[in-house]
Every structure is written in structure tokens, then in C-alpha cells.
Amino acid sequence: MKVDADKLQTNETDDRGRVYLGTEYANKRVTVAVVEVESETPDEEELAAAYREASESASNIADEWGVASDEAWSGLDE
Asked: Out of the domains of life, which is the source (predicted)?
């Protein structure tokens, strides 16, 4: 079956997995193909990568703060 690219539609499902096609399809036979499914929730690998990045960022900020704090205290001693 050949499908024109301009005929493809992207629809969101409701909380029960249903898609509203619209009134133009009322009382008509419709064939639907699921081409791709995207999840709105990140998978475990994405979460782990985000956690690692946040952890590294927090560590870098703490190191930078330590240097800045030491410099500030040293400046007060002079």
C-alpha cells in the first residue's frame, strides 16, 4: 500500500490509548497503521545519564565554590 506523506497524521492518545480521528471519518471504514510510538517518559538509560550529568555538574560547582571561598577568605586575611 502506498501512502502519500502529506496524508500522514500524528495524533496523541488519551489515557486509555484511544485516538480521536475526527468527524470527517464518521461512518467510514478506516485502516490505521501505527508507524512509531514515542514515550513521554524517559527510559532508564536517559535517567542514568541525566543523573550522572547532574552529579558531575554539582561536583564541579562545589569545587569552583571551594576555590572561590578560599580566595575570598585569603583576601580577608591580608
From this structure: Archaea
Residues 14-32, mean pLDDT to the nearest whole number = 87
The range of the structural domain enclosing residue 44 comes to 5-77
Closest CA to 32 of 14, 19, 23: 19
> Which cell numbers hold the place of 64?
569552583
Nearest Cα to 19, choosing from 41, 40, 34, 6?
Answer: 34
Cα(1)–Cα(72) distance, integer angstroms = 71
Q: Count of domains in the chain?
A: 1
Express each pLDDT in 52-71 by its tens digit.
999 999 999 998 998 888 88
